[in-house]
Amino acid sequence: MKLKGNIYHYTQIKFAYNTNRIEGSKLSEDETRFIFETNTLISKDETQNVDDIVETANHFYLFDYMLDKVDVVLNQDLIKEYHKILKSGTEDSRKGWFKVGEYKSLPNEVGGKETAKPKDVEKEIKKLLLWYSSLETVTFKDIVEFHYRFEKIHPFQDGNGRVGRALMFKECLKNNIVPFIIEDSFKAFYYRGLSNYEEEKGFLEETCLAMQDNYKEVIKKFLN
């Protein structure tokens, strides 16, 4: 219903602020709130990066799109649409090689580690979706593992983390699991969990569970 002042309102602001902040956005939570509530920016700083503003507004739309398509089975077109919504109108979108809404054309890395080569991305995403669709019952740990595998492939030139975290939120809702928002203050734990996942799955899982506990407390406030 997109009501103001409820869990939807809270989540839009918290999700956009934290997921963009993790990726380097300089917007504060109050500035994010102003953009959502008034479609304007009141900033204490003299300058703000235009892309931070555009990607914040885009994330509000992405969240709405995610809710509208929450029951859709994960597929490549849906994943690409997430990216297209997030990156449209940004400086990157004006670069011929960037390919908004399409898989990367140039190699990239994450955390100093290699990711899938551009020519292998579609094949690797297909394998990931095949594994995920084969699960009889999707659990919290399955969603976390999907996220790790998605980030390891790193299918897009940029925006992989934000797309991946939106997919996690969607899949939690779809599978009747309490969703969660990775908070910027837990960024180091989150990155460590991704980096060491193959050696110790529990670290990323525990980080996500801590975020889920935080979101559960928020839900209680709105329900009481």
Question: How would you describe this structure in keywords?
Answer:
single chain; 224 residues; mainly alpha; Fic-like fold; two-stranded antiparallel ribbon; 9 helices; 2 strands; globular
CATH fold naming? Fic-like fold
Q: How large is the share of residues in beta strands?
A: under 5%
What helical percentage do the residues reach?
Answer: 55-70%
* Named CATH architecture: Orthogonal Bundle
Radius of gyration: 17 Å
Order of helices and strands: HHHHEEHHHHH
Report on this model:
With 224 residues, the protein is mostly helical. 58% of the residues lie in helices and 2% in strands. The chain has helices spanning 7-22, 29-38, 50-68, 76-87, 121-133, 140-153, 160-174, 187-195, 201-223; strands at residues 109-110, 113-114. A two-stranded antiparallel sheet has the order 1-2. The mean pLDDT is 95.
